[in-house]
Structures are given as C-alpha cells and as structure tokens.
Amino acid sequence: QVQLVESGGGLVQAGGSLRLSCAASGSIATINDMGWYRQAPGKERELVATITSGGSTNYADSGKGRFTISRDNAKNSVYLQMNSLKPEDTAVYYCNAHLKSLERLFLVRAYWGQGTQVTVSS
Question: Residue 44 to residues 47, 60, 100, 102: CA-CA distances in angstroms?
Fold first, then answer.
C-alpha cells in the first residue's frame, strides 16, 4: 500500500512564506512525476507545479516567480516553497505522485495525499 502525507500548511499573512512537504511511503517501486495541486472553496482542483524524476519543473502561471517545487528522490519526497503569498493562494494543497508499486510493476498510477490547508490573510 502506498501513502502520501503532506505537512507544512497553516495560516500566514499576505507576503509571507510557507514550505509544504510531502513524503511517499509504502510498497513503492519507482516514482515518476510528482506535483502539487490546490483546490479553493467552490473551485475545481488546479495544477500548482510538477517535477519529473529528473528535476524538470512546470508551474502554473499563478505561481511563477513565487513558488519553487523540488524533490528528494532518496526520500521519496516533494516540496513546495511558497513566497510572497497572496490571499488568492488560500486553498487546500494536495500532493500527487505518479508511481509504480511493487505489487504492480507494469502500471503507473496516480496517488494523492489527504491535503493540507493553506490560508493567507490580507
């Protein structure tokens, strides 16, 4: 069984910073892409940033220049450094990983964390 566990959310004032962390654990064979998504109240879940196993990154326009995604392959972990936060960044942030489990080595599946709340006050 595979689990993704996020941490690092919280309440911060506009202009502040937060660092989100996500660790994948369980019967993992290999992890391909990892990423962060967010969902604000009344809105659909949207991409924040992704990173490949080789370190190539992709960002939504909303976070370019303010957010930085990184990963530690040895720890099966992905991080999101968020600077210059705005009230519109308020959302539940979800970690995502596309990976192969030891039970199904030929299948790449998407796994999600439980989400961590980020609230930015004005």
Answer: 10, 14, 27, 32
Measured distance CA(75)–CA(41) in Å, rounded: 32
Range in 50-54, 65-69, 101-105, 114-118 the model is least confident about: 101-105
Handedness of CA 56, 59, 64, 70 (dihedral sign): negative
Contact 57, 42 (CB under 8 A): no
pLDDT tens string 38-55 = 999 999 999 999 999 999
> What pLDDT, in 10s, does the model give residues 69-98?
999 999 999 999 999 999 999 999 999 999
What letter does residue 84 receive in the DSSP assignment?
S
Both tokens assigned to 103: 């039970």
**Contact (Cβ atoms closer than 8 angstroms) between residue 51 and residue 59:** no
Sequence-separated contacts (24+) of 101-109 with Cβ below 8 Å:
101/2, 101/26, 101/27, 101/28, 101/29, 102/27, 102/28, 102/29, 103/27, 105/29, 108/32
